[in-house]
Amino acid sequence: MPTALIWDDDHLRYDFGPEHPLKPVRVELTVALIRACGLTTVDSVDTLPRASFTDDDVLRLHTEGYVETVRRLSANPRIAGAPRYGLGLGDNPVFAGMHEASLEVCGASVAAAEAVWAGTASHAFNPAGGLHHAMPDRASGFCIYDDPAAAIEWLLRNGAVRVAYVDVDTHHGDGVQEFFYSDPRVLTISLHESGRYLFPGTGFCSEVGEGDARGTSLNVPLPPATAGDAYLEAFEAVVPPALDAFRPEVLVTQLGCDTHVTDPLAHLALTTDDYATLGRRLHELAHASAAGRWVATGGGGYQIGSVVPRAWTIYFAELCGQELPHEVPWDWLQLAEERVGKRPPDMFLEGPVRMSAERRAAIRSEVAQSVEELKGVAFDLLERFT
Fold first, then answer.
1. Has residue 272 been placed in a domain?
2. pTM for the complete prediction?
3. Which of 97, 113, 253, 306 has the lowest tally of Cβ within 10 angstroms?
């Protein structure tokens, strides 16, 4: 069964402007690198268009007042904004066509969900997606409409009984958590830099869901400078047993790569080697727990030329079961240098981050404490879903 890449150049219209850190060129360069590596020409990969996603569809998720405000500002971006709805200067500046561009991103993630649920693809990837901070009634953290939530809502509405969402962005997946915090059909797992240090200031172990959904919200807050070894230990301690207990029919993942040691907006210390390991483990877990059904989106990542395209190409190669060359294609390096003004690294993998043994041990100990706290408050609750 093929892997689907959901892509249209229109997805580049989600653009807050040249001074904003969420630059669409990072997605453009990702797709260019995927193509340069020949991944779209193998028999096991189909490039699919986004699904239709209308005003009626977005209103299944977001409040009417919020959607109407986005639509109004989208048509007239000279209006100052709407602070009540998180729109204006700062993280979420208004831009012309904002409403339509946001619908298109949602439509791409819904198309990924449709392909996987219908069985036309085993895995599907929307690199433009992963806007996981958008709340039901407001924009947040560069996110207008919440496309991972849209994909999950579509799956539930079309017959899925249990869906698991795993978020490896450096920022807590607070929006997706909020949409399904009281829904026992959805398990959300987020590994992220602790809200004590980083936006959005949430995602603590005590946030376990409410009502019948208690135990279906799992958060692993991590200290700054968490490197790949401690991160992957936390992942293995939480994600496989949680998926095994919950038994989802579909695995949805947000693959933000702002966990990278060089990312300018956060403080974790992963490398592209860790993304290769995470991709392999998520692939294995999709087959072990969700009959191979895997919907993946992009997410954060602000080293737009040097990290994001390599990271997401590594993930996509895993999705479609292909090996990458050791070296990044020369033609793509030339393109990236032209587009961002700096030449990216010429190798896909870069080795582990360097850190003193004492500091590494201290961070691993702190991460282990976070994992134990989560297990203490949530795992007994999750076991009732087994």
1. yes
2. 0.98
3. 97
